[in-house]
């Protein structure tokens, strides 16, 4: 009896094991992409890449820091001078920070503990921790889109006094516009952890073939896209027309001379400039790959890296992928240029911030850590450790670094270009959803440009009114 | 003597009831902690202005959250979208699930392997399923459009067009749910008495007539329960939509679950999200009642 049922049992067991293995494999494969789905402008690089680079970054950083830092006094063991807790969000920037911890501990004798929380939960978790006010974290990484929420809640310590006194951090090494990046209501609540402006990316091989040059205006950009598509060489362009469309739409509205709201927080998204910007975005869709209407932020980059697409406009923080042959075979044929100009010269700037929570129990040690990692002396070591670049003038003007990473020049934003950040409003997440719903509705022909923007203007009114409520 | 016995019996009954109450107390406490307390807190929160991001405590706002978010076109639209996706999904899942069960019930060669393969989708996490299908439904690079090309059909912008996106969501949900319908039907088929089926065949009924007039009526109670379970599951569908479309294009795939998620975890508006949750529970209450009735009927 037993021997008769054995093959059946074996088959069942084999089928079960196969099913389990397949399920685990698919689930595991999905993990990184779920993270990617969660990302916004600041979190443009994937966790997997970050984790892989951490180990290498620790070695690189240790060597680099040894050569740049002054010899440390013998202060004892890490922990003898207290300890700090750091809240990080998985990203190359986070990995780079972690790589500095051993050198900082040795130099300061301050023990550093860190924890990483995925982007999707990071800000909610921070807000809950700050509400409790028990000093859980001394240093915290956050997306610039949450600066307003943290600022309005008084959750972060102003760093202006530290900045004024620090020659090591040297805030004057940043352009005037970029010094404002972590400011809320006139106070600096976060240091710049990455500088990621929207820039133009183009395929040099395709452009050379048709004698095209990178666009300097939006009209030229459209003409280039049209030329490529009509020549049958490639798709002309790709923007995030889908669930992250607000990144591109806002950029165009600002660039076409419009604004999302006026000084009294009345929405102005149905202005002639916003209508022209939206119509332009819709026109670009004709020269994009099929199905581009559902492309999200990551799709834009990864399709550009894997398909024949003439040009995209995307945050500079993705540049690391261009150099990685496992992501693209076109690495040597990708050029970067300033974003095309519209009626207004604007730079849409995104990127991470890092600051000291107001309830930190060890603010001086927290500042010392930030100064050590992000100060001028270690700026090159920080970049070499794999982090997304920070737009210090000493970095963007370094000929050797620029030769290796041509996009670095674009992080030097001239004073003539108005820097636009994500709206520094607590209600931004709700605005974002309303914008995405309206603009994707327009792009998928569910409504006309004018009707869609009139409706959006109406929808945004109560949301903006709640900002001061 | 009888009176004495009856007093003793009453005492013993009381003691037994007390013991039962004492022994079941942990279960009641757990039920209260896991279900009753969250429901009460949810209803209470729905009448307050609490936000995760606010450092000042919320205040009572009465029914304002309901006025703003429930009696609003967004909620009504999301409810309609939820029902549309549920309907499309059921129209796929029930016939295919029942058909597959009928096929497997015949115990043809390779049935075991086929059954195991068909059950695989049910074992996967919805997030992984959503990601896998997002790649397959990609308009440029996806295998689905490639297949359409191969057979000479025109490509579809699966996630970028209103109705295509709704069908895509329902398809992906169906791919994962059909095994459940199949399994329930297969179990019911195995339990059916053979006599009525044989009698019908002896009377000369065709296979279709046997299925239509004998098998299906006998399966009805189980199918009703299966239908109710699937309706309830579809109404709370969230993860697949979150990964596939996030409610886009426009609001074409914004379900009540997604709207509530956005309000609670994206906008951090705890009170308003609680109001949406309570409203959803009230709106879907008739379905739960029907489900309970169906269960009772099956029992």
Can you put this structure into words, describing what you see?
The complex is a heterodimer of chains A (469) and B (299). Chain A has helices spanning 2-38, 47-68, 92-108, 119-132, 147-153, 160-165, 176-179, 204-210, 218-230, 245-255, 272-285, 297-306, 319-322, 363-374, 379-384, 393-396, 399-404, 428-443, 449-465, and strands at residues 83-88, 111-116, 139-143, 183-184, 187-188, 191-192, 196-203, 235-238, 309-315, 334-337, 346-350, 352-355, 418-420. In chain A, the strands form 3 sheets. In chain A, strands 7, 8, 9, 10, 11 and 13 form a 6-stranded mixed sheet that branches. Chain A has a 5-stranded mixed sheet with strand order 2-1-3-12-6. In chain A, strands 4-5 form a two-stranded antiparallel ribbon. Chain A is globular, with a radius of gyration of 24 Å. Chain A has 469 residues and is an alpha/beta fold. The longest helix of chain A has 37 residues, at 2-38. Mean pLDDT of chain A is 86; it is low at 1-54. The termini of chain A are far apart. With 299 residues, chain B is mostly helical. Chain B is 77% helix and 0% strand. Chain B has 12 helices and no strands. Chain B has helices at 2-45, 64-70, 73-105, 111-123, 126-136, 143-150, 162-191, 194-202, 207-235, 239-244, 256-266, 270-298. In chain B, helix 2 packs across helix 12, helix 3 (73-105) runs antiparallel to helix 9 (207-235) and helix 7 (162-191) packs across helix 9 (207-235). The interface between A and B is large, with 49 and 49 residues.
Q: Brief overview, please?
A:
The complex is a heterodimer of chains A (about 475) and B (about 300). With about 475 residues, chain A is an alpha/beta fold.
Strand content of chain B: under 5%
Proportion of helical residues of chain A: 40-55%
Low-confidence stretches of chain A: 1-54
Number of continuous helical runs of chain B: 12
What are the segments of chain B in which pLDDT stays under 50 over at least 5 consecutive residues? none
Number of strands of chain B: 0
> What is the largest interface, and how many residues per chain?
A-B, 49 and 49 residues
Please state the structural category of chain A.
alpha/beta
Shape of chain A: globular
Whole-angstrom Rg of chain A: 24 Å
Order of helices and strands of chain B: HHHHHHHHHHHH
Question: Mean pLDDT of chain B, nearest integer?
Answer: 90
Instruction: Summarize model confidence as the mean pLDDT of chain A.
Output: 86
The overall strand count of chain A is 13
Structural class of chain B: mainly alpha
Subunit arrangement of the protein = heterodimer
Termini separation of chain B (Å)? Answer: 43 Å
Tell me the major beta sheet of chain A. Answer: 6 strands, mixed
What is the CA-atom radius of gyration of chain B, in angstroms? 25 Å
Tell me about the biggest sheet of chain B?
none
């Amino acid at each position: 009896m037993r021997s008769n049922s054995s093959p059946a049992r074996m088959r069942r067991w084999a089928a079960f094991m196969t099913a389990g293995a397949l399920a685990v494999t698919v689930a595991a494969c999905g993990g990184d992409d779920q993270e990617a789905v969660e990302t916004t402008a600041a979190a443009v690089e994937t966790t997997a890449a970050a984790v892989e680079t951490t180990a290498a970054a620790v070695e690189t950083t240790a060597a680099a820091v040894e050569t740049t830092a002054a010899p440390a006094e013998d202060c004892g063991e890490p922990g003898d001078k207290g300890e700090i807790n750091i809240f990080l969000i998985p990203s190359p920037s986070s990995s780079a920070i972690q790589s500095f911890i051993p050198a900082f501990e040795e130099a300061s004798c301050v023990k550093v503990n860190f924890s990483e929380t995925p982007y999707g939960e990071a800000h909610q978790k921070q807000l809950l921790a700050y509400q409790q006010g028990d000093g859980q974290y001394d240093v915290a990484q956050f997306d610039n889109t949450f600066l307003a929420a943290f600022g309005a809640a008084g959750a972060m310590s102003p760093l202006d006094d530290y900045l004024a006194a620090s020659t090591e951090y040297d805030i004057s090494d940043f352009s005037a516009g970029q010094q404002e990046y972590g400011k809320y209501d006139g106070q600096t609540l976060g240091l710049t952890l990455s500088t990621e402006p929207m820039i133009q990316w183009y395929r040099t091989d395709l452009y050379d073939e048709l004698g095209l040059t990178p666009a300097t205006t939006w009209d030229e950009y459209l003409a280039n896209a049209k030329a490529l598509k009509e020549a049958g060489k490639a798709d002309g362009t790709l923007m995030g027309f889908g669930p992250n469309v607000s990144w591109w739409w806002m950029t165009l509205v600002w660039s076409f001379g419009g604004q999302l709201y006026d000084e009294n927080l009345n929405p102005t998204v149905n202005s002639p400039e916003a209508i022209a910007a939206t119509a332009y975005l819709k026109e670009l869709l004709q020269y994009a790959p099929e199905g581009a209407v559902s492309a999200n932020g990551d799709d834009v980059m990864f399709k550009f890296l894997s398909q024949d697409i003439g040009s995209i406009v995307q945050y500079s923080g993705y540049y690391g992928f261009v150099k990685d042959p496992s992501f693209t075979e076109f690495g040597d044929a990708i050029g970067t240029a300033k974003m095309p100009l519209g009626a207004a010269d604007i730079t849409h700037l995104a990127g991470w911030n890092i600051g000291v929570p107001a309830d930190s129990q060890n603010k001086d040690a927290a500042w010392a850590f930030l100064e050590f990692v992000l100060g001028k002396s270690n700026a090159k070591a920080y970049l070499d450790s794999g982090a997304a670049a920070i737009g210090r003038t000493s970095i963007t003007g370094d000929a050797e670094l620029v030769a290796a990473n041509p996009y670095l020049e674009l992080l030097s934003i001239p004073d003539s270009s108005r820097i636009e950040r994500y709206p520094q409003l607590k209600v931004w997440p709700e605005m974002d959803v309303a914008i995405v719903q309206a603009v994707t509705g327009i792009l998928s022909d569910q409504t006309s440009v004018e009707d869609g923007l009139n409706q959006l203007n109406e929808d945004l009114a109560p949301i903006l009114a709640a900002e001061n409520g | 003597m009888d009176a004495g016995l009856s007093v003793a019996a009453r005492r013993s009954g009381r003691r037994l009831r007390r013991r039962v109450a004492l022994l079941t107390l942990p279960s009641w406490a757990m039920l209260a902690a896991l279900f009753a307390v969250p429901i009460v807190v949810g209803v209470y929160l729905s009448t307050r202005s609490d936000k995760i991001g606010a450092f000042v405590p919320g205040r009572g706002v009465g029914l304002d959250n309901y006025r703003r978010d429930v009696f609003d076109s967004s909620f009504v639209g999301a409810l309609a979208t939820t029902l549309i996706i549920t309907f499309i999904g059921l129209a796929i899942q029930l016939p295919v699930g029942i058909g597959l069960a009928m096929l497997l019930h015949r115990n043809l060669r390779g049935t075991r392997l086929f059954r195991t393969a068909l059950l695989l989708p049910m074992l996967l996490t919805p997030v992984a399923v959503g990601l896998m299908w997002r790649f397959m439904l990609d308009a440029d690079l996806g295998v689905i459009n490639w297949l359409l090309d191969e057979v000479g059909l025109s490509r579809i912008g699966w996630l970028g067009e209103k109705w295509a996106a709704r069908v895509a969501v329902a398809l992906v949900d169906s791919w994962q749910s059909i095994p459940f319908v199949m399994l329930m039907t297969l179990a019911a088929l195995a339990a059916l008495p053979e006599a009525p089926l044989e009698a019908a065949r002896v009377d000369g009924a065709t296979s279709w007539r046997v299925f239509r007039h004998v098998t299906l009526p006998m399966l009805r109670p189980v199918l009703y329960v299966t239908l109710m379970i699937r309706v309830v599951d579809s109404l709370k569908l969230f993860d697949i939509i979150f990964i596939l479309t996030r409610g886009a294009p426009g609001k074409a795939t914004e379900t009540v679950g997604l709207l509530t998620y956005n309000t609670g975890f994206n906008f951090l508006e705890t009170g308003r999200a609680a109001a949406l949750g309570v409203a959803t529970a009230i709106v879907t209450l008739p379905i739960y009642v029907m489900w309970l009735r169906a269960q009772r009927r099956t029992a």
